[in-house]
Write a structure and sequence with these properties.
Helix content is 31%, strand content 9%. It is α+β, with helices and mostly antiparallel strands.
């Protein structure tokens, strides 16, 4: 499925839960969309979530939305997720 979670809410809820979710669009929406998916019951224990273009900020303790740090901080500090980062040439997944 392609689109924002708001655009796809009905389809997502019909097909839920998902084993794999790939976020690859505006980093500033990652946290908001993940939290919507959680609220709607689409993210379940065992769901693998991959967010592209995370990292590359180089600001220690950054929580800015634009660079994806707020999303990364949320999943890294939540007891709900186990996280790891794979670095590419400019940023990570």
């Amino acid at each position: 499925l392609c689109g924002t979670v708001v655009d796809l809410q009905r389809s997502l809820e019909k097909l839920a839960p998902f084993d794999f979710i790939f976020l690859d669009h505006k980093k500033m929406l990652y946290l908001e969309e993940l939290q919507r998916l959680e609220k709607w019951g689409i993210v379940q224990p065992g769901t693998v979530i991959v967010a592209d273009n995370i990292g590359g900020c180089n600001r220690g303790g950054c929580h800015r939305i634009r660079c994806g740090c707020s999303y990364a901080t949320y999943v890294r500090t939540s007891e709900q997720y186990q996280t790891c980062n794979f670095w590419g040439t400019r940023d990570g997944i």
